Amino acid sequence: MVIKKYAYNEIMRHTMWYKEAIIYQIYPRSFCDSNNDGIGDIKGIISKLDYLQELGVNAVWLSPIYDSPQEDNGYDISDYKKVYPPFGTLEDMKILIAEMHKRGIKLIMDLVVNHTSSEHQWFKEALLDPSSPYRDYYIIKKGRKNGKKPPNNWSGFFGEGAWERIPNSEDYYLHLFAKGQPDLNWENPKVREEVKDILRFWLEMGVDGFRCDVITLISKKQDFKNRFPTIALTGKDAYVMGPRIHEFLHELYEDVYTNYDAMTVGETVMSSLEEAKMLVDPKRQELDMIFNFDITDTDNIMGVKYLYRKFKLQRMKKVYRKWQKGLDEINGWNSLFLENHDQRRLPGRFNTNEKDLREVSMKMIASSYFLLKGTPFIYQGQEIGMTNAHFEKLEDYKDVEIHNIMNLRKHHPLVKMIVKEKVAYEVSRDNARTPMQWDDTEYAGFSKVEPWIKVNPNKEYINVKQSLESNDSIFHYYQDLINIKKNHPVIKDGEVIELFKNDNKVYAYERKNKDESIVVITSFSDKPIKRKALEEFKDNELLLCNYQEINDIISLRPYEARIYKK
Ligand code: ISL
Ligand code: CA
After folding, report:
1. Long-range contacts, 389-394 (Cβ 8 Å, 24+)
2. Closest Cα to atom 10 of ligand 1
3. Nearest to 344 by CA among 306, 318, 292, 373
């Protein structure tokens, strides 16, 4: 839908629908396979829209469906205006959008424009002919020592150097991710025009917004000098939050987003709160929301997921406190998430339980983040408590990232010492990418043939069919949380007041405005605990609890969660 172009200071360009959104993330390769070739597809998604409607979500973030050689499962795009054929066609996308809109569900596309695939026509032309105008679409520099060494010492995200030599030349191209993902040169105005053209193409088709992949990496310091070597990501001070990031984002906003009722959420790898505030300050018109990873880094060291550290609830509380308050100060909006396609699954993480207390602890952790201020996200399978894959053989893992890291371990004793094999498996992104478990049949109802990645054998008892049948399933608990969010405006705009602040086991908060107050109490303890202060709630209405009933007001059973209306 095209709406009128708003003036610069009219920040109501948006209906700000994203503040009412509950967003479900779909990883298309693993969601539902309609034609039984082992790979999920768009028609498969269409067949499950009623399920999403039943859950109650009103927006979907769809991981990339564009044409791609799939070196990084679609985060390597070879044609932005074509659908990856095994996923379907543009016609299927139009049907998907129409069917979603019919059900009151908006569609947010993944926008991957820090890099393209090396199979993109632009890159092919750039390599074929050094005088091609496409050469300047990428970051191509002469190597040192007549091309024997890369232009500088930067390293990328998948455990490799960030440069790849162009065959038969002294030149190298920059790739912060896999070799097949050359970085685009945003300094070139033509590249920015191409991006705008892609955005308009999809907005005209009716999509409602974009999740902007690694958007904080698009501007690079232009000196391309060596940087101080670090264990991971040498050069990050030159390529994270580069000098022109704000200018580039505002340019997209001005030239494209102002014409549509679209929202943007940026994946802001490694940006500080101060930087994030600039990105989402509505007055600056850059992004509407960002994904920050401080919460998912509470169980690792320095943001390196292979360096596991024991989870402490206080650390998590501190992060929530910091971001809830921080963004409020500038009227910015938070995103709330615990899982996505790059993260390990929740059961067993953050002190929760993967075994007998899985259900109750999943409901607890759901309550802990869902009703904070911001837009909650649910990653496919999270709503039924899907778990890590626990594959024992490397060959069962498919992600380029884990294969790179295991390869590095083979050749570098230091990496081998630092990254434990078991940890590498536990944090592998494939844990989130096993087929969605629809039922307990051989391939979990995802497909009738063997899927591209193995099904988790626990589909026997963790699956959608069972979750829909059982009244007290995790699915129904999410449904209840969604209803609370929808029916109580205080969850959208109320203040966030932290309770039990110094408690090492209980995370609790109140959402409060002039009309109402809702209190969320969650115990991260796997043992029963008593808290006298709970006495205060004895006359309050209990909106939701992850146990049948409350016998003793001051006793919290393992992982108990309560939501009161005050
Ligand atoms: O997944 C990570 C580490 O295991 C992250 O560092 C991740 O690479 C980073 O958050 C960027 O992620 C995004 O861009 C990547 C893609 O592989 C991820 O799937 C995507 O979410 C490159 O496009
Ligand atoms: Ca298929």
Report:
1. 389/428, 389/430, 389/431, 389/434, 389/454, 389/456, 390/425, 390/456, 391/425, 391/430, 391/454, 392/425
2. 269
3. 306
Measured CA distances, 444 to 286, 346, 436, 456 (Å)? 42, 20, 7, 9
CA–CA separation, 352 and 296 (whole Å): 14
- Six token digits for residue 390: 């626990």
Q: Distance from CA of residue 35 to its chain's centroid?
A: 27
Give the pLDDT of residue 231. 80
Which residue puts its alpha carbon closest to atom 2 of ligand 1?
Answer: 342
79 as an active site residue: the answer is no
Quote the tokens at residue 410: 């083979």
Q: For atom 6 of ligand 1, which residue has the closest CA?
A: 157
* Mean pLDDT, 10 residues at a time, the chain of 566 residues: 43 76 98 98 98 98 98 98 98 98 98 98 97 98 97 94 96 97 98 98 97 98 96 93 98 94 94 96 96 96 92 98 97 97 98 98 98 98 98 97 95 93 97 98 98 98 98 98 98 97 98 98 98 97 96 97 97
| Pocket around ligand 1 at a 6 A CB cut-off | 72, 75, 112, 157, 177, 213-214, 267, 269, 305, 341-342, 401, 429
pLDDT, position 13: 54
Catalytic residue among 72, 110, 160, 213: 213
Pairing mode of beta strands 59-62, 335-336:
unpaired
What does DSSP say about strands 506-512 and 495-499: parallel, antiparallel, or unpaired?
Answer: antiparallel
DSSP state at residue 530: E
Distance separating alpha carbons of residues 441 and 93, to the nearest angstrom: 29
Within a 10 A sphere around the Cβ of 2, how many other Cβ atoms?
9
Cβ(211)–Cβ(74) below 8 Å: no
- State the pLDDT at residue 427: 98
| Cβ contacts of 470 within 8 Å, gap of 6 or more | 476
- Cβ burial 402-427 (10 Å sphere, 16+ → b, else e): bbbbbebbeeeeebeeebeeeebbbb
Instruction: Identify the residue whose C-alpha is closest to ligand 1 atom 4.
Output: 342
CA–CA distance, 448 with 307 (Å, rounded to integer): 38
Buried b / exposed e along 314-348 (16+ C-beta atoms within 10 A): ebbbebbeebbebbeeeebbbbbbbbbbbbbbbbb
CA of 368 to the centre of ligand 2 (A): 36
User: Which of 403, 359, 401, 400 has its CA nearest to residue 382?
Assistant: 359
Mutate to test the pocket of ligand 1, among 62, 212, 214 (most ligand atoms within 8 A of CB): 214
37 is catalytic: no
Work out which ligand 1 atom sits closest to the CA atom of 342. 1
Best residue among 62, 109, 213, 306 to mutate for probing ligand 1's pocket (most ligand atoms within 8 Å of CB) is: 213
